[in-house]
Amino acid sequence: MAAVAQMSVSGGRAERFETNPAASEPLPVKWLIITISLVFFGAFLLLPLIAVFIEALRKGWQAYWAALVEPDVVASMRLTLLAAAVSVPLNLVFGITAAWAIAKHDFRGKQILVTLIDLPFSVSPVVAGLVYVLVFGAQGWLGPWLSAHEIKIVFAVPGIILATIFVTVPFIARELIPLMQAQGREEEEAALVLGATGWQTFLRVTLPNVKWGLLYGVILCNARAMGEFGAVSVVSGHIRGQTNTMPLQVEILYNEYNFAAAFAVASLLALLALVTLVIKTTIEWRTGRKARAVGAP
Amino acid sequence: MLGRRRPRVLPGFGLSIGFTLFYLSLIVLVPLSAVFIKSAELSLSQFWHVVTTPRVLASYRLSFGASLLAAAINVVFGLLLAWSLVRYNFPGKRFIDALIDLPFALPTAVAGIALTAIYARNGMVGQYLEPYGIKVAYTPLGVLVALIFIGVPFVVRTVQPMLEDLDLEFEEAAASLGASRWQTIRRVMFPILAPALLTGFALAFARAVGEYGSVIFIAGNMPMVSEITPLIIITKLEQYDYVGATAVAAVMLIVSFALLLVINALQAWTSRATRSAR
Question: What is the pLDDT of residues B7-64, one digit of tens each?
Fold first, then answer.
């Protein structure tokens, strides 16, 4: 039942292999494998992270700070926060609702629905942006109607928010569905038999049981929402101070050869990534959850 | 599934399934269908012509070729990384384990400019490659580097749980029957890990094919040489060639759907293999 109970933190568990002669390699082989792994890790993962901060501070703290308080940059921060503040709660509601329907009920076509929910992960971000241009763009399905009513969606803020929602749809649902399935229905059924209403059961039984999974999904969803580039780039229109999110601002500054400023903004996003990883890892340690490939198709 | 349907006791099914389908259709399904409906404005031969011009074909070769190569490289090093993280203790292990997901958490644009800075001619790594005539940034090699970066977690995070769950009995039995360690790894463990490795490969490949943000900065984006397929879509859009952009997008979507089916099958295979390896 409580699938959460299995403790499987990777740290420290290697003893059972290392002390077993049948399951360990000769010392030189062991250190060769570790060295190759570390070099690969260092070259491909650690170095880019370090490079962001080195490049950001190349011209000193003063230039760093000046780049961050520049009005267009501040506007991009505001837009990034807005996109996340709209898309994460909407996908949270969607995730909880979908998980309730899928994990707590039986119906035909459930597996198809689960696959459809994962669809945005296998679609290229560029295609994700394109679809909204096809629907809301000037030549799109709703284009004539929208322009007649002077509503701008594509190349404006609503388009950015929609594209962000699209790419982050699966995150919370995908965390909650397996978790709620593993927990079964007995506790909810008991609550109902004891006279609780449906809402009471949901709020007092179901939600507390999945709170860590919920937080996990929200953290990942937020990281992607704030960092999305491709999809947002297609629908943005790149209007300075208006339709640029932080990742788009990074691109603009970089393409203007204003490297220090580009990396300064990038360093904030890198900090966000680090905070995300710290919270994610903490939840994994607390709950014994295994790290899985995030955002996998 | 097998006859005995549970009576529906928990409330809220109608509301929750209704909202789920409504939201999913509104945000994902209807917009995605626009790609195919818009593509249908072209006749089949026109469609074929648009998606097979030399420049587009060159982009497929680069996108698919570099993605395959990057996924293959990730399988090798991802396996070694997962092996180190599960089987050995060494300083900094937890830190490395946590940072494996950096390519997900770090916005792709940030990764793109960071990799470019590192591998440019005067960059941290680029300056040491330059004397040997190796150019990474602004060449197809740069595309490969970005796609390796983006794919690392998929292989590690698929192989790692499998390695953790692998019952020691298999290795002990092989050793007691006189197999050398290398024989055990090659003949006993590798076949058990194969489904996970293949799944990791497919996930890394699927992600790499559609990747945009981390690639465009380092690629140089020269038509016919270092232009990836997602960039073709953007370029066509910027030239107001909506139909052309959509046709190429339809090709990418079909590939994505095919990959999704393959991945689902591989994942089912992996979870069966995991259960029998416990």
Answer: 567 888 999 999 999 999 999 999 999 999 999 999 999 999 999 999 999 999 999 9
Q: Are B202 and B159 in contact (CB under 8 A)?
A: no
* Chain A residues whose beta carbon lies within 8 Å of the beta carbon of residue B117: 51, 55, 259, 263
CB atoms within 10 A of CB B259: 19
- C-alpha count within 13 angstroms, C-beta hemisphere, residue B144: 15
What token pair was written down for A160? 């950015």
**Could you tell me the pTM of the whole model?**
0.92
- Residue B140 phi, psi (nearest 5): -60, -25
CA distance B266 to B204: 13
* Separation CA A130–CA B237 (nearest Å): 8
Q: Which of B104, B116, B211, B274 should one mutate to test binding to chain A, selecting the residue with the greatest count of A CBs within 10 A?
A: B104
Q: What's the token pair of residue B209? A: 């094919």
Give the separation between CA B218 and CA B69, rounded to whole angstroms. 17
Name the residue in chain B with its Cα closest to that of A111. B264
Please check whether residue A71 touches B, CB under 8 A: no
Which residue, among B63, B97, B99, B101, would best test binding to A if mutated, counting the most A CBs under 10 Å from its CB? Answer: B101
**Taking a C-beta distance cutoff of 8 angstroms, is the pair A248, A72 a contact?**
no
**Phi, psi for residue A113 in degrees, rounded to 5:** -60, -45
Residue numbers of A between 136 and 165 with CB closer than 8 Å to B: 137, 139-141, 162, 165
Tokens 């940072």 belong to: B99
Do residues A127 and A167 touch, judged by C-beta distance below 8 A?
no
**CA B277/CA B162 separation, integer angstroms:** 8
DSSP letter assigned to residue B245: H
Degrees to nearest 5, angle at CA B123 with B121 and B124: 135
ipTM above 0.95, yes or no: no
Question: Of B80, B101, B103, which is closest to A280 when you measure between CB atoms?
Answer: B101
Q: Which residues contact residue B168 at a Cβ distance below 8 angstroms, ignoring those fewer than 6 apart?
A: A16, A17, A20, A22, A23
CB contact under 8 Å between A247 and B108, yes or no, is: yes
Q: Measure in Å the smallest separation between the Cα of A128 and chain B Cα atoms.
A: 8
Are B98 and A133 in contact (CB < 8 Å)? no
Contact (CB, 8 A) for B35 and A137: no
pLDDT at A9: 42
Angstrom distance (rounded) from CA A150 to CA A243: 17
**Pairs of CB atoms within 8 A across A/B:** 347
In tens, the pLDDT along B144-168 reads 999 999 999 999 999 999 998 888 8
